[in-house]
Design a protein that fits this description.
By secondary structure, this protein is an alpha+beta fold. The protein is about 35% helix and about 10% strand. The chain contains three helices and four strands. The strands form two sheets. It has a two-stranded antiparallel ribbon. Strands 2-3 form a two-stranded antiparallel ribbon.
Length: about 100
């Protein structure tokens, strides 16, 4: 999870570069400033954390939360579902000319 300054054009460019660096490190975006990556060991997670620290822009803040496979498997995740509307061929609105 991270929070980066984006008040100037230079800061926005550095924030974009940081996000792209996370993708290059194998992360996937969960939310705009929340990225996740599977690491098979604590040592690997620490090494990835070191890489993140090296790439952090000035004024940025990163929090790394490590969860076990079991904890991740027990996570409840919800995604909004688009309500499908039945289309019977009739217009949704009456139009008068």
């Amino acid at each position: 999870m991270f929070d980066l300054p984006v008040g100037t054009k230079k800061e926005r460019k550095m924030a974009t570069t940081f996000r792209n660096d996370l993708l290059d490190l194998g992360f996937e975006m969960s939310q705009f400033s929340v990225y996740q990556k599977y690491c098979p060991s604590t040592e690997k997670a620490e090494a990835v954390g070191d890489q993140i620290q090296l790439r952090l822009p000035p004024g940025g803040k990163v929090d790394i939360l490590t969860v076990t496979d079991r904890q991740f498997g027990n996570m409840r995740r919800f995604y909004a579902q688009k309500v499908s509307e039945e289309n019977d061929g009739r217009p949704k609105q009456l139009q008068l000319f």
